[in-house]
Amino acid sequence: MLKLKCRMFEESKKSTASENIIITIIIFLVMFVVIQLAESLIPSIMSNSELKQRIIAEGTTDIKRSMEISVDVMMQPKYLIPTLFCTVFGTLISIIYCRFIEARHLSSMGMRKKKAGIHYLQGLLVGFVMISAAALLSALFGITEISVSSSVNWRIIGLMLVGFLIQGMSEEFIFRGYLMNTLGGRHNPWLAVIISSTAFSLAHLLNPGFNLLVFFNLTLFGAFAGLYMIAFDDIWGVSAIHSIWNFTQGSFYGISVSGTGETDSLLRTTAVSDSVLLSGGDFGIEGSLVTTFVLITACVPVLMKIKKQDTSVNK
Q1: How many Cα atoms are found within 13 Å in the side-chain-facing hemisphere of 109?
Q2: With a cut of 50, which residues of the chain have pLDDT below it?
Q3: Distance of CA 276 to the CA centre of its chain
Q4: pLDDT tens digits for 185-206?
């Protein structure tokens, strides 16, 4: 089996993290709940009044409908943008935990100065190409139709870009910089990639449209992100990929990001096919077979880079 080696894992071995994998996972789950509470506090306070009014007005007691109303309310820019900005707490809490509880050096999370800017810019390009490939292939095969938006709110789109740059980085610090690297320093690196990728996917369990293919695709994205991070031995490139993937999907192509609904965008993508497997259904293009193909294809050059590095080290 291909060996996954990187300085991050070597540095993580020096941490005070438990060697018991079950305890490590339980601690992560506790930390994840803390992060979710911290990230959602301000947006919840802001949207609470309107959400209550909407639910009372409909007189619904159905949990599913209440969740749909919640998504609809939170997708308004006045709540969505603060929500994205508040994900900075995920990054900060992950850093504080790893640095002061696990006693890990920040470089063990992938926070390196060397080539940080180059890797970030490269990641922006890679992420844009990947999600664009999925969007354009869907349009090419008649699964979706892409049109130009009749009106564009540039201020909203600009704020969404900044918000997604924060949000994408936050999820990478939580699931890769923290969870994957903690596990990778103590256990088999492949197991670290698998567990962190599965955790990342399950974190979207309550999103509208979540199904088995969505679970597989998000796990696959997590695996790609983990392998990419290992290949370049820092967190900057994969943070950029994640951020621009979400921004381009939602604010450029006008596709629902992980089932959260549509927002202001430069283009508008509409599903033509009735097949959920092809269009992704309510979850959006991330839940489609087209995205499965794109992600599998993207993993190939990353694995080749890791193999090449392993070969050169062993010569």
Answers
A1: 27
A2: none
A3: 21
A4: 999 999 999 999 999 999 999 8
Q: Using CA atoms, how far apart are residues 183 and 25, in angstroms rounded to an integer?
A: 9
For the question of whether the overall pTM of this predicted structure is more than 0.90, the answer is yes
Task: Look up residue 41 and give its two tokens.
Answer: 């506090």
Residues 6+ apart with CB under 8 A from 54: 69, 72, 73
Q: What is the dihedral of CA 24, 28, 31, 36, to 10 degrees?
A: -170
DSSP state at residue 36: H
Instruction: Write the pLDDT tens digit of every residue in 106-123.
Output: 999 999 999 999 999 999
Q: What share of the chain is helix, strand, coil (3-state, %, to 5)?
A: 75, 5, 25
DSSP 57-114: HHT---HHHHHHHHHHHHTSHHHHHHHHHHTHHHHHHHHHIIIIIS---GGGGT---T
Q: How many CA atoms lie within 13 A of 13 on its CB side?
A: 9
Give the per-residue pLDDT at 315. Answer: 58
What's the distance, CA 188 to chain centroid?
23
CA 70 from centre of chain:
21
